[in-house]
Amino acid sequence: MSPAAHYTFASDNTAGICPEALAAINAINAATEPSYGEDGHTAEARRLFSQIFETPCSVFFVFNGTASNAVTLAGLCQRHEAVICHELAHIDTDECGAPEFFTGGSKLLPLAAPHAKLRPADIEPVFSRGHGVHYPRLRVLSLTQSTELGTCYTPAELHALCAAAHARGLVVQMDGARFANAAAALGAKGHSPADLTWRAGVDVLCFGGTKNGLLTTEAIVFFDPALARDFEYRVKQSGQLASKLRFATAQWVAVLRDGAWLRHAAHANRQAQALAAGLQSLGGRLIAPVEVNAVFIELPPKVVTALEHAGWHFYRFIGEHGYRLMCSWATRDDELAAFLRDARAAFSA
């Protein structure tokens, strides 16, 4: 008989809906309310975003992270313009050309840099590429927070990048599929969501909800209202305007109003720290610092094989022996203990 399949550490997408969001969906299900975002839940969600970021925001809601990035970039770029990003950026490696499709042909310019974090010196050479109309005009710097290697940009690093981008006439978009995890990690060091976004120079944030326990909802938060002009039409034309939008925005209200979004993210981060410590004690070698809810680690082939035979699912990410393990708002202590118990047996076999 095959062992039970365990998807706990395969992705933070494998976890269910957090209790606050599920309760919010059930609570509003009996009533009839205005459609297409004309309801009170949507208005309250937008108010809470402005409260959390300590500044007026223009907020729009879409169904998933790919749409969040692609529709946002389409609103920022014309088809003859380009987007600078890291070579591991999700917009380049995991979105099936959606940014190019939605923008009508804008070019992505992926760059290499350590630990998936760009620096001003990394982007500077791009400005000397090409000449005139023979090369796409640079328009957007896209940053990922937290990054695809689970690292975080500090406010100082963001400020330096945004200043360099703005000096060249670029706007800054942040892919925040796991922004909650970065906010929890850096919040523990005294940095607010505002410090990680508009105060550092970020113009628009794609704020992930799915990976932090919400169902089919991401928020696009514009800190510069001029950039949001007519964006509601892009959301509609892209098939991203929910007729029953209240079921998405009520979830945001539920997690934003009392800080549940940060508590869930902090829990995932702590579980990743425990997972990393356990695997390192057995002989695993970290590939990147564990700063949020992701563990990137080198594991021997015999260990991977044994864990897979035990039913655990996780993905190879970097090189021949580099693997990614994710924790979520729902990762339990007993699941963590069970995985490390199986890993211990595999290392010692």
What is the helix/strand order?
Answer: HHEHEHHEHEHEHEEHHHEEHEEH
How many structural units, i.e. domains? Answer: 2
Largest sheet: 7 strands, mixed
Q: From the 3D coordinates, which CATH architecture of the largest domain would you assign?
A: 3-Layer(aba) Sandwich
Query: What would the principal axes of the Cα set say about the shape?
Result: globular
Q: Unreliable runs, pLDDT <50, ≥5 residues?
A: none
Q: Numbering strands along the chain, what is their spatial order in the largest sheet? A: 1-7-6-5-4-2-3
CA gyration radius, whole angstroms: 21 Å
Number of continuous helical runs: 13
Distance between the termini: 22 Å
Strand runs, count? 11
The CATH class designation of the largest domain is Alpha Beta
Determine the fraction of residues in helical runs and give it as a percent range. 25-40%
Strand content: 15-25%
Report on this model:
The protein is of the alpha/beta class and 349 residues long. The chain has 2 domains: 19-256, Aspartate Aminotransferase, domain 2 (3-Layer(aba) Sandwich); 260-348, Aspartate Aminotransferase, domain 1, CATH 3.90.1150. It contains 13 helices and 11 strands. The chain has helices spanning 19-28, 40-53, 65-76, 90-93, 98-103, 120-123, 155-167, 179-187, 231-237, 246-256, 260-282, 301-309, 333-348; strands at residues 58-62, 81-86, 107-111, 137-144, 171-176, 204-208, 218-222, 285-286, 294-298, 315-318, 322-326. It has a 7-stranded mixed beta sheet, sandwiched between helices. The mean pLDDT is 97.
